[in-house]
Write a structure and sequence with these properties.
Blueprint (H helix, E strand, L loop, with lengths): L13 H23 L6 E5 L3 E7 L14 E7 L1 H11 L3 E9 L2 H12 L3 E8 L6 E6 L5 E6 L8 H5 L3 H4 L4 H4 L13
Parallel strand pairs: 1-4, 2-6, 4-5
Antiparallel strand pairs: 2-3, 6-7
Length: 191
Amino acid sequence: QQVAIRLMPTEGNWVWVRAGIFFVTTAVVLAMAFHFRRFLGAWVVALGILVADVIARRVDELPHGAVSLMDEVSLHGGGCALNTATGLARLGLSVTVVGKVGEDTFGDFIVALLDERGLDTQGVLRDTAAPTSATIVLVDSAGERSFLHLPGANGALEVQRCSQRGHSARNTIPRSITSSVRTSAEPQTRQ
């Protein structure tokens, strides 16, 4: 009796091979992060956008001049700085968030959410002239999402202002980062 061993995956089980590689890689990264976190100084700066996400579920059609009912409306925090900082904090790292929100209800929500998640908010600036960045996410019955986005205070974030906020915030962003990050006032050019 012969036994054939397939070294190459067939078309049908290729998904399982990729999933296995993903899970093994994720497990190794998480194990390394857990093991080495004591050597990292447990301090990370998450610089980026902070967004209030308003999610409306079961919006199959936008009514024009009429009222349409939905199943659910919920408010969540989002944006690369908030999401990344949250993930790193869950791994046990101490994270300072640097970003900009408006001096409004959504800004209060974002700052309270950062505090609730144990994130340092000394680098979060409040803007009295611009509203907090917000995204309305419309989810239809098939799960397809459409987005309406307001850039708000994120569009006015300047790295130099973050590093000039005060003595403790000056140490939030190292000079090597502030000198290499493009500010909103600088023109975008191809290099």
